[in-house]
Every structure is written in structure tokens, then in C-alpha cells.
């Protein structure tokens, strides 16, 4: 027996096939625009912003503007799922759920375009969440500023929760983040003559180990931080001493002060590597994201509202070391982010992640109903 797929599950599968890196979401943008063109247009206004899209649905008796954000980019991961709607872009995958986020966004937009709210509604399809960060420049753009919502909401899929669970918390939800790129330059040479060269693979190995001591030895044990080096490059061939090496990573902290402390320790450790290995080093912090800090009142109100729904289990969760550039929007506009359970054994950024698609229609119903309810409040 074949069961027919919901239109938004189909959309998610279409989007899953075309993951694109940040600010290169050209096919994704075209796909979303094509779909948006099929909606009732009488109250709709559509704007492109770089590879993103803003859509406004005029309310019937607006007192304010309610906002929703869905991110669009994929990740440089070679997919290993069992899907028959596998990524068609080799080496790229929607492994952080942005395909679901966009499908849910289109579902919410469809519901509101077909049956407008009393309030105005703006949805932002935002590029480049995984980097270099689309939220801040979108927030600062003229296109967004003219339609700036009075409240904004976003969700993120959560592999560890069952479908039907929504988890969030008032206050801090996600960490401050900073990317980390460290380049080391020494002197290359023949593998047989190490005394005539200056080996940057060995320097990188020492640096990697010393970086691990920052969280364990420099931070108050009651504070929290993460330094993850996700990629190391160095050298060209097994019998050539490497002239250069590069470490790429990310830093996560719950406070801005701890971020400063971690960065100053990284700089000291890198200066030590320069001195002890006689090499040159440079540090680039890449993209930095503001922590995701949920508005206390709106989040409590949302959780209370959820608790009356028989289809949802509302959970107050702990903060996580995940980063999200939606934090910039929440620093400027009251609102909140929440986790949506998608029940899969593989975590975010894993090549085998297969989020449960039943969560898509559930999220569309919940988010649309929430905006309908909110729009009827004084
Ligand atoms: C939800 C999620 O997984 N977000 C990413 C954000 C990455 C920010 C930046 N590229 C970095 O690596 O610091 C995450 O890795 O938490």
C-alpha cells in the first residue's frame, strides 16, 4: 500500500536534493520563489535579498507584525543516507535540517496566505546560517528594516527528541560562537633532513594538543566552553616536510567574557608555538555569532500555550553549545527559538541523518496556530 505524501514533505524532499553553500542558494531561492508564486497573491509582497527571500502577508486588522525565519543553506558533507531523494550536489548535503526548516516555513506561509492573520506577517528565508552568517546582514538590510517584525520566531530540528516534542527555554538557548582558522608557516624540505627544515605538521600537532588545555586548565570548571578543531591540513606528500599547515575550528561559550578569555588564551598558545617552533602564525576568527537568547515573557507564554495542545509535549531544555545566527535577530527583536523533535539516531551535521518527516506537518500546524492565536491577542 502506498500512502500519499503531504505536499510539504514532497517540498522537503525536493529541497533535500539541491543543498547549496551559504550565499550560493540560487536553485533553492528559485524553487522557493516558484512555490510562493502559486499562493494567493492578493495580500502578498515578495522581496529578494541576495539569495534570501522576504515575504509579507498583509493582515486584516494589523496591530503589529509577526515574523518567522527559516534558514536555507546546506553543508559540505557527502551524504550517506538511504534516501532515494539523495543530494544531487556531490559533497553537499542538508545535514542540519534546513530543508525541513524551509518546507515548514512554506507551510506556515501557505496557511497564512490562504487565511490571513489579523496582524501583518513577515517570513524571512535566510541564507548562510552555517557561515559566513546571513542573519546579521539581512537584519541590517533596507529590505528587512522596512518590514521589521515586532516579534520573531524560528525553530531548529532536534534529532534527540521524539516527534511531538518541542523543547525550549526562556533566556539563553544557544552559545556565542566564533570560527577559528590558524595558519602556520615554516620551512619545507626533504623528509630525510629534518634539521634543515621547519616542520609545520609537527607544529600543528603540538598546537592542537595545547588548544585542548584551554578549556581544561584556563577556564573556571563551573564555566563552559568548547574548542573544536574540525579540520587540519598540512603538507603535500609523505616524504616532504610540510612548509605550511592550517587548523580550522570553532569556539563556543555561554558568555561574551569567556569568549574573550578563550581567544586571549588561543593567542598566547599560538605565540608560544611561533616561539618554540620558529614559525610564523596567523589567526582569523571568521564569522562570530551572537548567542541565542530567548525573550523570557514570550517564551513562557509560548510554552504555556503549547501545554494546552494534546499533540505536543513541551519540554524546558538546557542551553546547548550549538550556534545560530538567529541570535542576532533575537538581540534586536523580541522572540524565541525552539527545538523540534525529529527522532533520528544520527546527530546534526552527520552524513546519515534522516529526520522524521511527520514532524513537518505537525510543526506547520503548531506554528500557524500559534501565530493565529498570537495575532488575536491585544
Ligand atoms: C545549528 C547549527 O548547527 N549551527 C552551526 C552554526 C555554525 C556557526 C559557525 N560556522 C561556526 O562553526 O562557528 C553550529 O555549528 O552550531
Strand content: 25-35%
Largest sheet: 8 strands, mixed
| CATH H-level homologous superfamily name of the largest domain | Zn peptidases
Spell the H/E element sequence.
HHEEEHEHHEEEEEHEEEHEEEHEHEH
Number of helices: 10
- How many DSSP E strands? 17
| Radius of gyration using CA atoms only | 23 Å
Shape: elongated
The CATH class of the largest domain is identified as Alpha Beta
In CATH terms, what is the fold-level topology of the largest domain? Aminopeptidase
What is the CATH architecture term of the largest domain? Answer: 3-Layer(aba) Sandwich
Which percent bin holds the helix content? 25-40%
Write down the domain tally. 2
Low-confidence stretches: none
Q: Ligands in the structure?
A: ligand L5K734KM
Q: Within the largest sheet, what's the order of strands?
A: 1-2-4-3-5-17-6-16
Amino- and carboxy-terminal Cα gap: 48 Å
Could you say which structural class the secondary elements and strand pairing correspond to?
A: alpha+beta
Mean pLDDT: 97
Pathway: Amino-acid biosynthesis; L-lysine biosynthesis via DAP pathway; LL-2,6-diaminopimelate from (S)-tetrahydrodipicolinate (acetylase route): step 3/3
Pfam families: M20_dimer (PF07687), Peptidase_M20 (PF01546)
Family: Belongs to the peptidase M20A family. N-acetyldiaminopimelate deacetylase subfamily.
Catalytic activity: N-acetyl-(2S,6S)-2,6-diaminopimelate + H2O = (2S,6S)-2,6-diaminopimelate + acetate
